[in-house]
## 1
Amino acid sequence: MEGKQRRLNRIFQADERTVIVPMDHGVTIGPCKGIENMQNTIDALVKGGADAVLVHKGIAKRVAAGSTGLIIMLSGASNLNPNPNGKTQVCTVQEAVRLGADAVSVHVNVGAQDEDIMLATLGTVANECDLFGMPLLAMMYPRGPKITSEHAPELVAHAARLGAELGADVIKTNYTGNIDTFKVVVECCPVPIVIAGGPKTKSAKDTLQMTVDAVEAGAAGLSIGRNVFQHEEPSAMVKALSAIVHRGASMDAALKILGGSS
């Protein structure tokens, strides 16, 4: 078994699905609620059964996640930047290897002003990942001046396919809001897709329902941050999401795991 597959097996369970919790928000928006103390948050997520956590290299150096998969973010930009959609590479694949990463991630805003730079980074990183046997998760979002809706099915499908075409092993992108349209996105993408959580939802029920629908449409799982680590009970939220992703739990069953909390 090659190194890339071994690492993927630490992130995806035997059912080829995964529950990832990204916590790279400290670079983008600062130490927001839920990630003030990263070790405490990661402990709660590990307790809940998260398959992997995603962080920047500086955090990876300072936290322990047990046997939970570690994904290191290679892209960054703060929301204080006049061009916040232009993500730049802030870590290398080789650094991630030294830190014991099970995968790396690159962020591309398709349609943004600096899309060309981000695509060049994606292509270069994909090659390096193949050399090092490192899985690549590409965060592919339709986002820019010409984008009228970041959840439009044809745009999400284009973004997902673009990431796969340039060498990503897993795609993270927006859910289209509809099972039938997202099925098309999944069918048109030759690598697994996990859904993003987006901004904080009005209720946990909204996040759970989106997950139920996305899995039914063929998603390989999720990569949801704020709607998990900002929940009053992050461990319970992870357990509820994992039940949906890995055991096909219904909305009602997931809500019971969550204790009816919204």
Note: The chain has a mean pLDDT of 96.
## 2
Amino acid sequence: MPAAVETVVLLGFIGSGGWASFTASIEARDGKPDPLDRWSRRIIGGIAARLGGAALYPFGDPPYLPFQRWAQRADDVFVSPLGILIHAEFGLWHSYRGALAFAEGLALPETPLRASPCASCADKPCLNACPVSAFSASGFDVAICRTHISEQAGAGCMSGGCLARNACPVGSGHRYAAAQAAFHMHAFRRG
């Protein structure tokens, strides 16, 4: 990270936006590890070079950068009952692939402040949809989830995405397509 940073601009996907660009890339087809991370580095690194910023990423080696805190300062995102960030409009269907850091302050548009959609969700279907109850008030049990999706009983989660995440009604029009959801589930299972 540069020594002096006045502005950080987060970059990522909303729903399946950008997914076709990734799947058409050389990184998606070359069979090497971490294709989405390598594609993100190439694309975001190119943008940073053109705009005179520094490229930053939420993946790679420690120390990890505080992308989730940056997101909470920049937009209407909140910690959901699942522990992942939920956006007031896009729900659980957004991701941060990188950021651009600039030494100068940039004039950025104001966003309207909205409340967490989880605050008014009485039923919390996300907490009851997991077939192995991997989500609870004490957090997310990664081991139980990974064991489940490594067995035949977890085939539905692997092919269509996390059932708890899919149960959230917020931003359902931005839900990942099956191939995108499966890609992320396979990456999660690999650890």
Note: The beta strands are 7-14, 54-56, 77-79, 85-87, 94-102, 135-136, 139-140.
## 3
Amino acid sequence: MRILLWHVHGAWTTSFVHGDHEYVVPVLPDRGPDGVGIARTYEWPRDRVTELPPVALRREHFDVVVLQRPHELEHLAENWLGRRPGRDVPAVYVEHNAPQGRIADMRHPVADRDDLVLVHVTNFNALFWDSGSTRTRVIEHGIVDPGARYVGELPRGAAVINEARRRARVTGTDLLDRFAPLDLFGIDAASVGGIEDLPQARLHDEMARRRVYVHPIRWTSLGLSLLEAMHLGMPVVALGTTEVHEAVPPEAGVVSTKVDVLADAMRRLIDDPDEATERGRAARTAVLERYGLDRFLADWDELLEEVAR
């Protein structure tokens, strides 16, 4: 199957393009948000992924278009392809984010459409978004397994937050001081005293050197960095919001809405490497069972075949 999608979320797309299909991602000369092209900090299977400029897309055949942002549906796809997604070419819309605003106003941009399928990445998102009569499916995350790399040699916490200053309270940036000693990683992390964006493989190595993973994010669908940390074999302390309680079992760490409880748990794990290691093993076992790559790709294959018929 030949699939067109924009490179929007690096970690999610990395998992998606590990399927048994041919993937095309648009590329622009400046590699801006609408034309990032092939990833440069993630490992993608280069024999399955091609980047093409918009001018070339009209000549190409696609079995399915995967949309992830409203303007892809409203402008980019039709203008660049010369075909209407959902009408002239089968389409699915992946919603990565939890909705913002008042409960009564959380209506999805593709609500009440009969020409595509809306895919949510968590059950929490599916519950909170109002999709009207649009067909919906939940396909939970799957992670390319980085392997059990946990060492925990550094008695510190690790957190990964992209754009920590801009996203502020959403990502719990204001809570970071409560979790000292902690090292923050991510895009623009240096703006709040953290470590700038690293290639994924090096990031995983650096995370795994820290003794515990801290997830202070208030409002997100489900942070992929949390699932990556669990794959590495890291114990977890996480703010118990959105989908986190579904992803982190009690034996893998501590989940709570009480920041003091989490801070105390982090320091206990820092002081007890044996408990940290044991909980990290449990985290890895749990995440492989629920968020493994094979299950993720199988779920997507089933939906893509259904949509492309």
Note: The domain at 154-290 is CATH 3.40.50.2000 (Rossmann fold).
## 4
Amino acid sequence: MIELYYPYFKPAGDHALLAVFGDEIDLATNHRVHALDRLLQEEPFEGFVETIPTYTSILVYYNLLNTGYENALAAVKEKVDRIGEEIELIPRKIEIPTVYGGEFGPDIGHVAQHNHLSIEEVIRIHSSRDYPVYMMGFTPGFPYLGGMDEAIAAPRLESPRTHVPAGSVGIAGKQTGIYPIDSPGGWQIIGRTSLKLFDPKREPPFLLAPGDLVRFVPAQAQADKQQE
């Protein structure tokens, strides 16, 4: 078995490299990913194109007309060496008003039953902490949130829905997230927010970004509708 030392770097196709900081989802590893991402955005090297950060790694694209793999690798390694000494990420804290249960959260009863809890306990637990945005994906603006209490963890649906309304708040395994647009989906839906997570006419188009802290705030259905 080959023992890996982090971070490590490897080519990803002919015009990208992958920097890997670990193999487990945790806040410290994700912090390093986003610290490198910020450095690359603020101080791009010659030929830099874009980045795609994930839970534990970051994909860095570059233009072969301007640079090659070895030059890009040297530039990325130089920035990795500075993480922890110069980079302090101060997260934005964003509240998400959420109507739990009823027509907005058709699966909350199943989540409660699966964990031997009441619906009220599920709501209290889900809305009692801040969730870091680890990464975006699946659909435009979909935030994968970490730090959910395992007391309300629940498996994905056996048969995904063909339509999940935008703003739906879901649980899948030990994660929670928010559907930014109408789409298919297999997460357990426990509530919904009226906030728009993705608006192509807005700048930036995404309400949330990796590194943000999200807090779900229970809201009355009528008050939520008045905000729409």
Note: The longest strand covers residues 93-100.
